[in-house]
Design a protein that fits this description.
Layout (H helix, E strand, L loop, with lengths): L6 E2 L2 E2 H9 L6 E3 L2 E3 L5 E6 L4 E7 L2 H21 L2 H17 L1 H12 L3 H21 L7 E2 L6 E8 L2 E5 L5 H14 L3 E5 L6 H12 L7 E3 L4 H10 L3 E7 L2 H13 L4 E4 L5 E4 L5 H13 L11 E5 L3 H12 L20 H16 L3 E4 L18 E4 L6 H4 L6 E7 L2 H9 L3 E2 L1 E5 L3 H10 L4 E4 L14 E2 L2 E2 L4 H6 L2 E8 L9
Length: about 500
């Protein structure tokens, strides 16, 4: 393992790692200790500079096997505790996360390239997630079913045992907390493989929840590549369910690998969400909402409102206003408080965004704003892309069908409600959507008819752990967050008890 000190502004990752782990040696976090891998060398790149600041070795199956054994032992001990005791420890996790908010946010900012202001918010949300599920720990109840015999029939929600979770690079610590908390609330042990590009904040999070009292080995972070470490975790017989957040392409592979073992999986995949503005909308609010829908996190969000559908009566006005506002959005180094849009996370994704924009222009889209690399002092070799508005897009263009996953919005005109619904649903994805209108009846009609797992009216990106989240179509299946997300981590057992003496078998 090698480590290079990267000092940009206040970023000193070596200090942060030493403070959390006592060393800058980095690998997988297994049974409460750092376990170094022996596989391929993996470089971590600062997206703001394009420079490597750290490397570590792929965990591979040897580390996975140790982690699986640790999770199995710890899960049995964890499940043996009372539900109240588990909930109390989960509540302490929230407090410890809040105490270490700044360190976690800075790790997230440098490795994922996310503005520090956004990272602080996301770490706070992780604390909220643990506190929310802490409250559910002693409220997972079954039913008594009045069967037509003398039996007492009741149901129990029991954990799977050990689950494997695979999380993405765009929101590492948020998606880690989003999955870990309901899994352990339900009584499971966890093998968590974050993206090989952004393992730092997730590993630190798991170390800190152990400080709060979560048993060592209950949650293990296996750091490495998908085709080696991730595949080994899914193939391990300890894994009883797989939860994956990422691209549809990888999701298909995850689903196939899970099916080979006849184990269930939850897939939270991509999106191409339609954000729909009608003539009667409050345009001041809608224009602000349109920007927040797609430019936050540099557009690297699965629910990004990357298709902006605008009714023709206000189309030119909306395009002009969104484009004008977009030119004023501060693009900069992610560790600066004033930055609102940071870099794309990695070079491959930067090239994908750049190529899709060029292809859209070749197909007839008009660049109303942005459309090229952003020049940032101190980030000349970083992966910065200017927030971009593409006008005159039609829904057949690739920029309207493919997930760009960058700060790019395609503005598509429509004539009436029926056409808006048809365009919105003309997509293989179905993760989210929104409508901006003063017509209450229309709002409910749109919510009912647009194919999306989450739909907003006169707002965008309102997401909370209390509410279920998931997609339709190629956006995946299963639900995370809320009570529905908790039940994804349980199996229902039906128990039949014959209380009558000498009763005949029914």
């Amino acid at each position: 393992m090698t480590f290079l000190v990267e000092k940009n502004g206040e970023q000193q990752i070596d200090v942060l790692l030493k403070g959390l782990f006592g060393s800058t040696d980095f690998g997988s976090w297994v049974a409460g200790d750092m376990m170094l891998g022996k596989g391929e060398d993996i470089q971590l790149i600062n997206p703001a500079t394009g420079h490597s600041f750290m490397s570590y070795r792929d965990a591979e199956s040897v580390v996975v096997d140790v982690a699986a054994a640790a999770a199995t032992r710890a899960q049995k001990q964890w499940w043996a505790r009372t539900a109240t005791a588990r909930g109390q420890l989960m509540w302490k996790c929230g407090a410890v996360i809040r105490e270490n908010l700044e360190q976690l946010a800075r790790l997230e900012s440098v490795s994922a390239g996310k503005p520090i202001r956004d990272c602080r918010v996301e770490v706070t949300k992780v604390a909220d997630i643990f506190e929310y599920y802490a409250g559910w720990s002693d409220k997972i109840t079954g039913q008594v079913i009045p069967v037509p015999t003398s039996h007492l029939n009741y149901t129990r929600h029991e954990p799977y045992g050990v689950v494997t979770q695979i999380t993405p690079w765009n929101a590492p610590i948020f998606t880690a907390g989003w999955q870990i908390a309901p899994a352990i609330c339900a009584g499971n042990g966890v093998l968590l493989k974050p993206s090989e590009l952004t393992p730092l904040s997730t590993t630190a999070l798991v170390k800190l929840i152990e400080v709060a009292g979560i048993p060592q080995g209950l949650v293990n972070v296996i750091n490495g590549l998908g085709h080696t470490t991730g595949a080994a975790a899914i193939a391990n017989t300890v894994t009883k369910k797989v939860v994956f957040v990422g691209s549809p392409k990888t999701g298909r592979l995850i689903a196939a690998a899970s099916a080979q073992r006849v184990i269930p999986c939850v897939l939270e995949l991509g999106g191409k969400s339609a954000n729909i503005i009608f003539n009667d909308a409050d345009l001041d609010r809608a224009v602000v909402g349109a920007q927040a829908a797609v430019f936050a996190a540099a557009g690297q969000s699965c629910v990004s409102g990357s298709r902006l559908l605008v009714q023709r009566g206000v189309y030119d006005d909306v395009v002009e206003r969104v484009a004008s506002a977009t030119n004023k959005i501060p693009v900069g180094l992610p560790w600066l408080d004033e930055t609102m849009v940071g870099p794309i996370n990695n070079l491959q994704q930067f090239n994908h965004v750049n190529n899709l924009v060029a292809e859209g222009v070749a197909e007839g889209a008009v660049v109303a704003s942005g459309g090229c690399r952003a020049n940032v002092d101190g980030g000349e070799e970083g992966y910065f892309f200017r927030p971009t508005v593409l006008a005159d897009v039609n829904n057949r263009m690739r920029v309207a069908q493919e997930e760009i996953f960058g700060p790019v919005v395609s503005v598509i005109p429509f004539d009436d409600e029926a056409e808006a619904i048809a365009i919105a649903n003309d997509s293989r994805f179905g993760l989210a959507g929104a409508a901006w209108t003063a017509d209450v009846g229309r709002a409910h009609r749109m919510a009912a008819q647009v194919n999306a797992g989450t739909f907003w009216v006169n707002s965008y990106k309102a997401i909370n752990v209390m509410s279920p989240f998931g997609g339709f179509g190629e956006s995946g299946y299963g639900r995370s967050s809320g009570y529905e997300g908790l039940l994804e981590y349980t199996q229902t057992k039906s128990v039949w008890v014959e209380p009558a003496e000498n009763a005949a078998t029914q």
